[in-house]
């Protein structure tokens, strides 16, 4: 089966990212599209997994994470569960605050743990790539 690729403009429209965000994230090595050299310049194309990565970055930033934490979280997820970006199937994750470190850590989602964190006044950010995957898949169908 042939893989479908999307131009930067299409990727921006599908994910809700700006073209400047795509360029910046590409320059920083966060999301790496296929770049082909042509006689007159470069052609940049995004795969479906790239679209999921873009949507995940946008989600992390919309949750108030800074760029470094968002891009690190994305890298960890790609390393731990690359299948999430291919099929949307896999583990649900969450970012939670580690009290003694004053930082966020990515752990598998557990409802009881999330509730305990919230009751303790600590932030919990769900990282459910299956939901992001389904949203992008739905947009691609239309």
From TrEMBL:
<dbReference type="InterPro" id="IPR009061">
    <property type="entry name" value="DNA-bd_dom_put_sf"/>
</dbReference>
<dbReference type="Pfam" id="PF13411">
    <property type="entry name" value="MerR_1"/>
</dbReference>
<protein>
    <submittedName>
        <fullName>MerR family transcriptional regulator</fullName>
    </submittedName>
</protein>
<feature type="domain" description="HTH merR-type">
    <location>
        <begin position="6"/>
        <end position="71"/>
    </location>
</feature>
<dbReference type="InterPro" id="IPR000551">
    <property type="entry name" value="MerR-type_HTH_dom"/>
</dbReference>
């Amino acid at each position: 089966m042939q893989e479908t690729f999307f131009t930067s403009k299409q990727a921006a429209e599908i994910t809700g990212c700006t073209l400047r965000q795509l360029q910046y994230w590409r320059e920083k090595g966060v999301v790496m599209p296929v770049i082909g050299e042509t006689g007159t310049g470069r052609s940049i194309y995004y795969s479906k997994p790239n679209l999921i990565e873009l949507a995940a970055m946008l989600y992390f930033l919309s949750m108030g994470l800074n760029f470094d934490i968002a891009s690190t979280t994305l890298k960890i997820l790609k390393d731990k569960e690359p299948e999430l970006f291919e099929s949307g199937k896999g583990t649900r994750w969450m970012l939670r605050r580690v009290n003694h470190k004053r930082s966020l850590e990515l752990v598998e989602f557990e409802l009881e743990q999330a509730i305990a964190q919230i009751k303790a006044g600590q932030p919990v950010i769900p990282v459910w790539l299956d939901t992001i995957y389904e949203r992008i898949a739905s947009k691609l169908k239309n």
